[in-house]
Amino acid sequence: MTLETTNIASAAVKITQELPLPSPRGSFDGSDAVLNGNGQFASRELPVIEPSASENKEELEARVVKVIEGFREHLEDRTRHHLGYPYNLDFDYGALKSLQNFSINNLGDPFIASNYGVHSRQFELGVLEWFARLWEISKDEYWGYITNCGTEGNLHGILVGRECLPDGILYSSKESHYSVFKAAMMYRMEAKKIETLPSGEIDCADLARQLDRSKPAIINANIGTTVKGAVDNLDEIIATLYAAGYTEDRFYIHCDGALFGLMIPFVKAAPMVTFKKPIGSVSVSGHKFVGCPTPCGVTITRKWCMEKLSQTIEYLNSRDATIMGSRNGHAPIYMWYTLTRKGYDGFQKDVTNCLQNANLLKRKLREAGITCMLNELSSTVVFERPQEEAFIRKWQLACEGPIAHAVVMPNITPEKIDYFVSDYVKSRQTHPTTPELVEGCRATMGKHVDL
User: Fold this and answer.
1) Is-catalytic flag, 310?
2) Cβ pair 106, 119 in contact under 8 A
3) pLDDT digits over 97-114, tens only?
4) Among 93, 264, 365, 386, which is most buried by a count of CB atoms within 10 Å?
């Protein structure tokens, strides 16, 4: 070790030894964030404390175990009070615990073997085929991969659209996930935000007005918007493009189905998301409705669209057309495990249960006098924004302007719904709503408001 590195190491030890040691609950007592001067909550730091010369190996291990145990208790509490984000927290992957001892990396094209042998491509291909059957595209017509998150699925789908139609304009509703316009910024694409109906779905009349017929159209269709859970009418979007004179070689449609892309196929009378329609790609998240301990997702596109993206990488002895190079090889195993154990029938039951419980939550809120709405094809219940910030943070609610929402997932039970509503009623007693907020909430919901 050089003198310079020795000094750095000594300084690090001195600094960290001066920091207080975390208690079993320590930094995990629920106050894992503090309000800063900008009115935002800043995350707190858990310092890396260097081993002390006076601390033996057993003491060090005991200190680390104490911190981890405190964090586990914190996560259990946060899981009990989770309602605002679309994550299915009802899963058990204990049977896969032994696989954590391996660095599983699915780098490169999932359909082409690499020189790196510690991979899970066989699981990945099985998952892709499961979704391909769900979205009605044959094995010889599709290409796809397991992504690291839903955003990566959108980044990839929009990139494919841009490569197929280099001078195309991206159109997406103003209630789209932020990653859609993030993609436009990253790829330096011209993009237009389309107005929405009160339900949250895209206003195809405004889409027709904003279409620039001199350039190809790249459309992002939302299969469940972020806040209201609204599903864009795919058939109406396609009809709008045809009516404007677009032929199928002059438009590309990416379907962002982060949450509802997996639920919609199991909802009776719902419009189908299928490659039998002139769409280019579909993406979903794996950690949402499926339920995985790590963020992940699936993206599938038409094989012919990938010709301009795919390139041979000698270092890998494979081809690659993914956004990321290295990809989490554990994620396909998690997804394969759940898809295999549940099957289509199991997901059908989960979807039915979620929709029933979403209607139960809407009814309970309405009975409590709380303004709310629920789109017909959705399990996202929108309601007036609570006035108590501590309550919002306790239940991890997602808020936007005068509204907040709860996303009913398979882990949300009637008992948790009762607990949440009674807790909300108590919060309103000490932090009552205002007429202005209620009016703003109703204006946002429009005719879909449930008084």
Assistant:
1) no
2) yes
3) 999 999 999 988 899 888
4) 365
